[in-house]
Amino acid sequence: MKHAAIKLGNEKTVTLSASKHNEIQAAIINEFVPQFVKDGEVLYVGDITNKGTHLDKKILRELKIPIDMNSKLPDVVIYDRKNNWIFLIETIASHGPVSPKRRIELEESFKDCKAGRIYVTVFPDLLEFSNHSDNIAWETNVWAVDSPSHMIHFNGNKFIRPR
Known about the structure:
Layout: E1 4-7, E2 13-16, H1 20-36, E3 41-45, E4 54-55, H2 57-62, E5 76-80, E6 85-91, H3 100-109, E7 116-123, H4 126-132, E8 140-144, E9 152-154
Parallel strand pairs: 6-7, 7-8
Antiparallel strand pairs: 1-2, 3-4, 3-5, 5-6, 8-9
């Protein structure tokens, strides 16, 4: 595996250590964010070997998101200031999907944050997704690196409409 480079909105480039987990995180920053969160600010990315690789303490504190050693931040946190949405993104290569249990943990951790929460689980491919699809929480989203232009929504009839 190779080191994964991510380019943050402020023109800062961060290099993550070589791992499947970090390759997925690089895809989140380099592919997912430009397509689905165009003006998103990367507030947190944790390298598998260095949990605080990128941590925007100032904005996290403004949003009332806990950042102490006991906080349970997801793998990637993106803020869409325009819509006041916070994207809480887990990669399957770390703790698993945003399961019902994990969603409750995140709700508790982010209870003081007034931004709307969007939960996303990222898989390297749809085959890996099929192995975990029975453990995805309702009201969450799934994105697969091998199908970058599409998202799977576990959101009931919210998106039912003619195309």
